[in-house]
Amino acid sequence: REIAEEAIARKGFFAAALSGGTTPSEFYRHLAELKDGFQWDKTHIFLVDERFVPPGDLDSNLELMQTLFLRVSNIPAGNVHAVVTDNSSISKAAELYEQELKQFFALSGKDFPVFDFVGLGIGVDGHTASLFPGYPEVAEKERMVVTSEHAGIKHKRISLTLPVINNAMNVFFIATGKEKAAIIKRVIEDKDRALPAAEVIPANGELTFV
Ligand code: 6PG
């Protein structure tokens, strides 16, 4: 709430990019409780990543957010910036999402958006967003949005890139459960740069682990 209020006071809107997965559910339920006391009309929600599944699919990250807080908040529909997945091609979905970012943040040239808040999860393999260890999209420096399609990973995905995440004002990792303890240690203490999650080092923003 403080981050949102500060952003709205400073520039008139609050832009957040949020992740899917199971961990943030409790946090999203709390967002549902903010209801009218919160300036939803000045809040813009983007997705850190999305699975390439039809709209409304139970594995869609947007659907998770819709169910847990967006539908019960009074956020205007236009403030929810979905990854459009009803295209035939995932590369088209990524391109459209990049255009959406450029337009919303009025970006020119090689500028990256500045999110006020980015909420991330972490996988036991050290992935974050849909940036999986050992794949070239982790090293992407120019694009804002990449696709990720790998054997063994359920669903093709569309993801924000590290330059976008690292350009944010506030980045929060949320992790729970003892099965995540070892990987969190490798990120925070060992700073093991082979892990995409350890490559999250905001240039000018704050990084917080919860
Ligand atoms: C997703 C994510 C992903 C997630 C991690 C952790 O769409 O799955 O955005 O990066 O945050 O995989 O997932 P869990 O919270 O389910 O452990």
Name the features.
27% helix; 210 residues; 3-stranded antiparallel beta sheet; 17% strand; single chain; alpha/beta; globular; 6-stranded parallel beta sheet; binds 6-phosphogluconic acid
What is the CA-based Rg, rounded? 16 Å
The hetero molecules present are:
6-phosphogluconic acid
H/E series, N to C? HEHEEHEHEEEHEHE
Class computed from helices, strands and strand pairing:
alpha/beta
- Tally the helices: what do you get? 6
What is the percent of helical residues? 25-40%
For the largest sheet, list the strands in their spatial order.
Answer: 4-2-1-5-8-9
What portion of the residues fall into strands of 2 or more residues? 15-25%
**Largest sheet, strands/sense/barrel:** 6 strands, parallel
Silhouette: globular
Mean pLDDT: 96
**Uncertain residue ranges:** none
Note down, in words, how this protein is organized.
The protein has 210 residues and is of the alpha/beta class. The chain contains six helices and nine strands. The protein has helices at 2-11, 25-34, 61-70, 90-104, 162-165, 181-188, and strands at 14-18, 43-47, 49-51, 80-81, 117-120, 145-148, 157-160, 170-173, 206-209. The strands form two sheets. It has a six-stranded parallel beta sheet with strand order 4-2-1-5-8-9. Strands 3-7-6 form a three-stranded antiparallel beta sheet. Strand 8, helix 6 and strand 9 form a beta-alpha-beta unit. Helix 2 packs across helix 3. The longest helix is centred in the middle third of the chain and has 15 residues, at 90-104. It is globular, with a radius of gyration of 16 Å. The two termini are 16 Å apart. The structure holds 6-phosphogluconic acid. 6-phosphogluconic acid binds at residues 19-23, 48-49, 61, 121-123, 127-129. 6-phosphogluconic acid is lined by residues 19-23, 48-49, 61, 121-123, 127-129.
